[in-house]
Amino acid sequence: MKSISTFFYTIGQGFRNLTRNRWYTLASIATMTACLFLLGMFYSIVANFQNIVKTAEEGVSITVFFNEGTSEDEMTALASQLEKRTEVSKVDYVSAEDAWNSFKDEYLGEYADGFTENPLEDSSNLQIYMKDVSMQPQLVTYIESINIVREVRRSEVTASTLSGMNRFIALVSVCIIAVLLAVSIFLISNTVTIGIAVRKDEIEIAKYIGATDYFVRAPFVIEGVIIGLVGSMIPLALVFYLYTKVVAYVGVHYSLLENILVFLPVQNVFDNLVPLSVGIGVGIGFIGSFVTVHHHLKV
Amino acid sequence: MDKGTKRKKKRIPGDEIITLENVTKIYPDSTNNVNALNGVNLHIKKGEFVFIVGDSGSGKSTLIKLLMRELKPTSGDITVMGYNLGKITHGKIPKFRRNIGIVFQDFRLLPDRNVYDNVAFAQHIIQVPGRIIRRNVQRILATVGLAGKYRSKVTQLSGGEQQRVALARALVNKPAILLADEPTGNLDPNTSWEIMKLLDKINAAGTTVVMVTHNREIVNEMQKRVITMKKGVIIDDAEKGVYIDEEY
After folding, report:
1. Domains of chain A (ranges, CATH numbers)
2. Angle, to 10 degrees, between the axis of helix B159-171 and the axis of helix B115-125?
3. pTM flag (> 0.95)
4. Per CB distance under 8 Å, which residues of A are interface residues toward B?
């Protein structure tokens, strides 16, 4: 009974602290909002860049041609086998007839009527699309070692350019996100530290009267968590609003870029951004207040 | 004669509530260590009123901090209400401190809370249920003469009233011992006497009072036990003593 009453008292104190120290609360939330807003914006941009590169990667294919006499069953069996590989996203079987029809439609048009037989008789092939083009050389080496395969065609330059760009974006974004994270953690934990340090008298008095560490710490930790939660929800709302507005604006005013600028749906961005922001906000609020109060408990 | 005690007039028999045996406290320093207390022996009985006097740097504040277990002795034994303060674990310190009330020269109230909340704060710490807190706080505020000001912000009170709030906060948990570190240091003479009357009343009700002070008039007038300290040792311990001059 006593501990339930203390539990609710400490929760109540945590909430009351927010209004008692309203300037500190506002400063902490503003700092957190600014840091997490920058992080959120940058993450949204990076996620979209990566998506554009990934979409381009997915369009790059490897074409596999087969030795004369290879049956359709053997080709489709190989297709199924290749589809099971982790780096492969899709394998399309193109029969000789499909290849000829496609060629006719694309290049010959009405002139194709002069052909009575399929000149691309040996052109049955597999179109392999990859999830990760950086794995293309290894996959090609493997396919070339298969005895029914006559030739493997690929665009080495496109693959290496895309995989290089992907690596570059990943590296730059990791570096910038790490710097933003470090700055966020530094600023937010400093605000939490200062906010608690100015109330060290209150902690000391509580300790003199006989407060346990839990009793002293709990309101500060609750306060820190609430500040973290609010400080992470505000920038998420701002980023959400801006993101949807920008996507709609680009869609209307720059429709020519529609095929190049394929924006990620807002939900895809927020699937990662919400846990990231809330985790940082609440995590720093919790850890920052826990550690800072700990320094003042040695009374 | 005990080490650290030049003159000892009388040992009061009875139940001891505070015992210091050969207590030394050294503050480590990069250049030279500071000997704040040096082989102090002290025995205080339940229900006593004890003044601790002495110049700045005589070790009075260190003694109070040791009695609160804010500091650990470098050597020697301190026993307060059966707790050996040299060996007490961190987890048991809160339970020990609930037996002790403390008031300071600068009151140390929570400035963002009203009178009621400042006093109730002490009750919440020892997990008293809400309705009992209301009753206890009203009772103790009446005792210190502030029943009508329970809603006032402490920053709007006079120094004397603030010290009364601090006393109410120290006493609401019914401590066996009250430590008062220069409680009249920031007050005018009239207000100081009001506080002293309250302390006397509290002592008469059975609370042991240990008060550090520089106020010669109060010490001489009150006719209580006086322990005089100088350079970390007790130089005088007198029943119904007086404030000893510095030249002593």
Report:
1. 2-56+163-296 (no CATH), 61-154 (3.30.70.3040)
2. 20
3. no
4. 1-3, 5-6, 9, 20-21, 201-202, 204-212, 215, 299
